[in-house]
Amino acid sequence: MDQKQLFVVGAGVVGLTTAIRALEAGYKVTVFAEIFPTDPKSIKYTSFWAGANHLSFAESGALMEVLEKDTLNEFLDLIKQDPLVPAMTRTHFGLYETLSGAQERLDHFSQFYPDFRSLDASECPAGVVGDVVAGHSWTTICIDVPRYLLYLLERFFKLGGQAFRTTIPSLSSLVSANGRPSMEVFGLNSSSGPQTPTMNPVAVINCTGLGAFSLQDVLDTDVYPTSGQTIIIRAPWVQPSIIYYFANSDISYIIPRQSGDIVLGGSWGVDDWHATSRPEIAKAIKERGVRIYPELLPPGKREKGDINDLDVIAECVGLRTSRKTGVRLETTVLEVDGKKIPVIHNYGHGGGGYQSSWGSAKHVMKLLGELD
Ligand SMILES: Cc1cc2nc3c(=O)[nH]c(=O)nc-3n(C[C@H](O)[C@H](O)[C@H](O)COP(=O)(O)OP(=O)(O)OC[C@H]3O[C@@H](n4cnc5c(N)ncnc54)[C@H](O)[C@@H]3O)c2cc1C
Ligand SMILES: *[C@@H]1O[C@H](CO)[C@@H](O)[C@H](O)[C@H]1NC(C)=O
Ligand SMILES: *[C@@H]1O[C@H](CO)[C@@H](O)[C@H](O)[C@H]1NC(C)=O
């Protein structure tokens, strides 16, 4: 029997992870995308801008919760099996200035993370200063995003995946006999393989993230951006993953990367498309970070607590791929040239696309298995 063909649209963390699982399941997979991990960073590609750690905010009983649990287990296995994976386990600390803040999140976190612990104020990680009254801790995954995206891309090609660079006006244009958008082969080395993809996929997987940048499909009006600013700082001595909930509901987070950089956040701009870092937000993020965790500064500079002493690599903004009704993982059907082509949607992961990536890919495999 011929190998079944699959098209995956999108090469962010969601598209690449899905493509890898499909290759491993024996499909012949072609990825189509405008932007790949080796490109310059772009606001149109959310995956470049993530922290990223594992911090579930799924509602109890929601699909997202299952996806995040599967993904946590997958990352723990991956790290055990392959020491070269650009992701590491770290102790995560949730620190609260109010008891109600800790109480609100207790039920969810305590049933989600197997090694969850409630902490009292005396168990703050070394170096944290502030009015902490309660804390939570568990083992999280800290993903070195720039390296991890390259890791996924290499794993995809090693498994025999094919990729084309193209901006598609709609999903149907990809499978239509006339009017297929122009495209070029994309590879990590000077490309050899076929110069045009074949035409008969059993399904198209829609992993286009926010989509709205270039898709002229019937746009899903539930999708919206939640912008997030971060500061990348050189601070290889920082060990823990920290999220700090201030009494006034501000939030600071710190995520270490394998490279020795750390990500300091953050901000949440609902429906905010602004594509460049706002200086006043960047300044507030730095001030909050240094106030609660002077260890962000190089040794010798911590007493003074001056944000200008931070070894800043970059000030960033990304658009989380939010969706009012939550992640979309379902099958619909496209009619093109009289043929019916199943489309499996895998987008709308909001601020959790990394921590739900492997679970989402597994769910897509289940939906694929249910086709005819
Ligand atoms: C500041 C910040 C912090 C975050 N922190 C975390 C965290 O700690 N943990 C976590 O799990 N998540 C985190 N996230 C969320 C995470 O980054 C996203 O959920 C995830 O990256 C979404 O990935 P995606 O593959 O769906 O979309 P994207 O990465 O945006 O990829 C979309 C792909 O589709 C392609 N595409 C779109 N339209 C077209 C078209 N018309 N034609 C061709 N190609 C197209 C694009 O080129 C791209 O390849 C964070 C996000 C931000 C901004
Ligand atoms: C690219 O070439 C390098 C060196 O020749 C090789 O090690 C690597 O596996 C190749 N990568 C791909 C994706 O073919
Ligand atoms: C594919 O996903 C995007 C969101 O990224 C959505 O707007 C679009 O409607 C989807 N395509 C189809 C055909 O449903």
TrEMBL record:
**Which residues are recorded as binding FAD?**
46-47, 208
Domain (FAD dependent oxidoreductase) spans 7-365
Give yes or no: UniProt keyword Metal-binding: no
Task: Give the record's GO CC terms.
Answer: cytoplasm
What InterPro entries has UniProt attached to this entry? D-amino_acid_oxidase_CS, DAO, FAD-dep_OxRdtase
**Single GO BP term:** D-amino acid catabolic process
- Which is one GO molecular function term here? FAD binding
Spell out the family assignment given in the record's similarity comment. Belongs to the DAMOX/DASOX family.
Names of required cofactors: FAD
Q: Which residues bind D-dopa?
A: 320, 351
Q: Which PROSITE patterns match?
A: DAO (PS00677)
Query: What UniProt keywords apply to this chain's record, in alphabetical order?
Result: FAD, Flavoprotein, Oxidoreductase
Query: In terms of domain of life, where is this protein from?
Result: Eukaryota
Checking Gene3D superfamilies in the record gives: D-Amino Acid Oxidase, subunit A, domain 2, NAD(P)-binding Rossmann-like Domain
Keyword flag Oxidoreductase: yes
Task: Indicate what this protein is called per its UniProt record.
Answer: D-amino-acid oxidase
